[in-house]
Design brief:
Blueprint lengths: L3 H10 L6 H7 L1 H15 L2 E2 L1 H5 L10 H9 L6 H14 L3 E8 L6 E7 L7 E4 L11 E2 L9 E3 L2 E8 L2 E7 L11 E2 L4 E7 L10 H9 L14 E6 L2 E6 L2 E5 L5 E5 L3 H11 L7 H6 L9
Antiparallel strand pairs: 1-11, 2-3, 2-10, 3-4, 4-5, 6-7, 7-8, 8-10, 9-10, 11-12, 12-13, 13-14
Helix pairs in contact: 5-6
Amino acid sequence: MLTINESIDFINRILEISNVEEKLKQNRYELLCSMMKTYVNLEPFQNLILLATKTEDRHCPTFEEIQRDVFSRVGGLCYNHNVFFKYLLDSLGYQAHFISCDIRYPRNHIAIVVKEVIRPGDVYYVDVGCGYLLEQPISMQFDECSDIYHQGFFQCQFVRKNGIVQRIQTVTKFRPVLPNEIIRDKKWYVFSEMTLDARELSYFADSMGKVFTVKGPQALSPFLDSLRLVHKNKGKFVAVRNTSFFFENDNDELVETKMLSKSDVVQCVEKYFPQISGAAVAGLDNLELEFDCK
């Protein structure tokens, strides 16, 4: 999908990482870490472009569309990001494959597993397409529980249970948690569940098609009925969730500010997500937002 020259151009010009071929020879793990961290700090997780698209034109994007949007730093949903990043890794010689994850709905999240990065037999979970940004590969070499990873305002851990790997996280104000998801003294919840089985991209055709096109009771995600924009600004989490603006302060605390009008949302997008601000008005016109004007 990507030639080695296209990948090196992206890494050099967009990620601003130089000497890629030399770093591949010296330390493949460190290069993977650098690419992940830089990528999630540059490429927004967002559904604004999707919301701005006419209903009859919505579709699961082709790789050509994904490549165009990632090279222009428009970003997108998990499918956009992780499909691009997997093929980027392929072109560099990493042993990468897709895996399927469930986030409240079946098969509605696509992620990546990379094998033999440092030594034979090692396995790493890679996800550059999630609203809860992971800046590093996560080792899957554990019996029951992984280490706890601190990602700014939240912590996450991976737990192996009856052949399923759960991604669990600390409860935060960014995402409402359902009662059946709560574990560990109401401080943690199950964010997603997955197996590490390798999947072809065609495996996701039906479920991802629904993510990009289906609203209502048959929907497999909230992304056609609500607004999500997530980004790193100077290394700190910045996000829009419907009418709320979130930012991570210097103490790694998540601060929420309520926006009072559609104009406030547009101005927020223009300030923190300028590369997609042209879609703001059309996207918001296709969405019913309830503002608290008290």
